[in-house]
Amino acid sequence: MNYDQLLAPAAKAMRPSGIRKFFDLAADMPHCISLGVGEPDFKTPWSIRDAGIRSLEQGKTKYTANAGIKELRAEICRYLARRMDLEYQPENVLVTVGGSEAIDLTIRALVSPGDEVIIPEPCFVCYEPITQLTGGVPVPIATKAEDEFRLTPEALRAAITPRTKLLVLPFPNNPTGAVMDRDSLEAIAEVLRGTDIMVLSDEIYAELTYGLDRHVSIASLPGMKDRTIVVNGFSKAYAMTGWRLGYAVGPQPVIAVMTKIHQSCIMSAPTTSQYAAITALRSCDDEIEIMRDEYNRRRRYVVKALNDMGLTCFEPRGAFYVFPCIRVSGLTSEEFCERLLREQEVAIVPGDAFGASGEGFARISYAYSVDHLETAMRRIRRFLQEHGWLEEQK
Amino acid sequence: MEELLHILEKNARLPVEDIAAMLDKTPAEVAAMMDEAAEKGCIRGYEALIDWERAGVNLVEASIELHVSPRKSRGFDEIASVIASFDEVDSVLLMSGGYDLQVTVKGRSFQEIALFVAKRLSPLDDVLSTATSFVLRTYKRGGRLYQNEEADDRECTVL
Prior knowledge:
Oligomer: heterodimer
Shape of chain B: extended
Helix content of chain B: 25-40%
Largest interface: A-B, 30 and 17 residues
Strand order of the largest sheet of chain A: 2-8-7-6-5-3-4
Distance between the termini of chain B: 37 Å
Distance between the termini of chain A: 65 Å
Number of strands of chain A: 12
Shape of chain A: globular
Number of helices of chain B: 6
CATH class of the largest domain in chain A: Alpha Beta
Order of helices and strands of chain A: HHHEHHEHEHEHEHEEEHHHEHEEEH
CATH superfamily of the largest domain in chain B: Lrp/AsnC effector binding domain/regulation of amino acid metabolism (RAM) domain
Structural class of chain A: alpha/beta
CATH architecture of the largest domain in chain A: 3-Layer(aba) Sandwich
Number of domains of chain B: 2
CATH superfamily of the largest domain in chain A: Type I PLP-dependent aspartate aminotransferase-like (Major domain)
CATH topology of the largest domain in chain A: Aspartate Aminotransferase, domain 2
Number of helices of chain A: 14
Largest sheet of chain B: 4 strands, antiparallel
Helix content of chain A: 40-55%
Largest sheet of chain A: 7 strands, mixed
Structural class of chain B: alpha+beta
């Protein structure tokens, strides 16, 4: 069989993950320290796990309603009102297999061949391939370190054409840790008002922001709710990555079409996870705070450690990543990360894996224990020292 | 202050500079807070968690449940302090439930501990009875696993 000829061109054209070889390399190093993963190191809080177990004991092992258990959708609405200042009804909610499925459905429901999708980069890597699979055209916008990796209204305005269908707004951002505060969002909203452009606001890290201001959703700004699909989920806030549960909320006509697609290819999100998630939303606000405080301590520690060794990074205000500049080495991101891995056995992710504008940077996850981070920071420092790239601080 | 104590409880060897970064304070401020905590007696000491079995050192540990008769005016305090003053005793805790004091004792051999119980603890006037249980194996102590350390099995590269 000539599989090469058989495979669909659009699927074949999907870019393979540029860092696969990296992690294969790391897998063969028993003493390798990874700062590469993008998921919490915490276990799911016990009360949530217990709720999942109880649902199994009670034999709740069937499909649920396609859009998700009604009780869960109602609880999601209460949660969004309580913590995100967003007013939705259960019919505006679709429970999905992780935030990823919600992203996929949003793009598939809205984007036709030739439609342009604006994607601020560096960002999580799924928006571009999913857009391409629908025949849509990804239009990347490079965000810059000097703008604290925020999307600016000028850059957005310059990228808009008559074919623009959708703006992806991935904040708090993976990999940069950037957040969009209310004023920055208002400036973006002002560009969009009066157009037909929809917004996919990926707010999976909404609970992980650090500082005085809590996360602001663009859907909470005047006139924006009707054009915004908010994607969120349980993976990051409740350390529930393996449960595969997320959701989308938005205008009912869009959610209805997304539900139709979901019905055909997924049926319904995992039942056990849905029951567990009800408990998460009802009684785990405190657990979120405990985990966030811990992330925050690590974040401050890592930012200082990196800045002290001359890998400058702006202070990330969200998610659990730091995005230091590695240009002091004169290497490309990929060279830097590969040599760091080979010489000091520390795995971090080259910034260009998240879009061309990530070149010159690297992503470091701090979803690791302090002991683990300390060892990694020592090794990175030694790596810089041995190559004469360390700018000694007083 | 509470946050600082939680950090130290998990890892007392962190450099003051790193703790300062975590708490968004200066190293001098953190050092002053640590001094204050020590002066107030909030910090009772710093020690290492040692797996003696792995270090190849023979050490026997026992947990002793004691029934004692409390004194009219001083309750359990007097007898508890007497027991706490023995060097062999590692910890003394007043318990709710079926017995009064839980005493842990460390020694070089079973015999050494048995002799300590027989000759020093049991003869005390206020000690009514003792029940000694020896520690066979340590699985977790101070929040750390001693036998099967949990491996980080996160593999998924989320980009």
